[in-house]
Predict the 3D structure of the following.
Amino acid sequence: MPIHHKLQALQQEGNFIRVGLIGAGQMGRGMIAQIAAMKGMQVVATADIRTENAIHAYENAGFTSSQIVQTEQLEKAERAITQGQVVVTFDMQLVLQLSSVDVIVDATGIPNLGAEIAWKAILAKKHIVMLNVETDVTVGPLLYQMARAAGVVYTGASGDEPAAIMELYHFAKTIGFQPLVLGKGKNNPLNLEATPDSAKIQAQKVNMNPKILASFQDGTKTMIEMTAVANATGFLPDIPGMHGPTATVDQLTKVFRRKEEGGILHSYQTVEFVNGIAPGVFAIITSDQVEVHAELQYLKMGDGPNYILFRPYHLTSLETPISIAKAFLEGEESIVPYQGLIAETVTVAKKDLQAGESLDGLGGFTSYGKIMEAKAAKQTRALPIGLADASLRITRPVKKGEVITFDDIEQTKIQMIWELRQLMERDASIYKA
């Protein structure tokens, strides 16, 4: 039965999936509005340090002031939800504790916060949907194993590019194609020196946090997203940082060939990004069946031997309800690190760094992310970008463009994501490639 039929059936029975949202930024607000238009699902509680963001999101989705209850008290929140109201709070712990929540969605985009949310959601035996790829590429293998042991679903979110790529990958694998290259378009030219200051004007135009925009411009977000795809499929970056050519969709099968075939790749089963096809995602495929090639050419898929499956959109948090429904109704995930830690997004100095300087996280002034094979990252003690926040201080000079290692930093504060990473590192099997 299709998911929308199952949701309609829930609604007809007087039931619905009760969603707890943490983070009412752009992604969270869009999700509240989308779910308000659906059957069989409702965001019953939302936490954000700026509670007005959550209140406005509910109001914009059609809720009246009498339907919105702002509280930090557990009993009051439980009672409000039972009475058909929705809860707004600045305390994410409240949302995690609510017995009247079935599925938690993390829309914070903050690695350490996401680690805490996922960990506590799983301990509470709640499904957890991550609109937070940053956490997943840092400690996702551990969280996935933990969720399976607890009998709940841990998953990335439909609509994010990694999950959209996985839809193409699973489709290809299911019907017997051989995926060769998996990738996405990049929305803006790669600028390794992008900072919140340089991104400020553009961010104002699109009503976006300058630091978040800088993390897109400097490539960190793309590296993280393709790391998630690598860890889900076992595909590797062809070179550290990937190639990132400029191309149109109809050029991709020629550009992403092996060098001996006239392309730029050393090998297949790789992850990549492209300037020029955003917001699309793609999978380059082939077949060893002569009749399949003939059929694909008849269907105007190209001359072969490689062909492209292209999806020209991804709807970010507007598609997240699909992952919520799949988790609750079918016990299925959209994307998880099935293969363990295959790739890593490591931390690279954005400028010359001196001893005593603190790092400042994704999209900041001090560092950017670069994808590389996880085993190579481990051997060189490269620092994962998901750990590189303001709790770390540089202990010796690091030149611009150099990878920052564990030997170059010291902790000034213990973060949960560090504790989970250390726990994960005790299991050597996470490095499967």
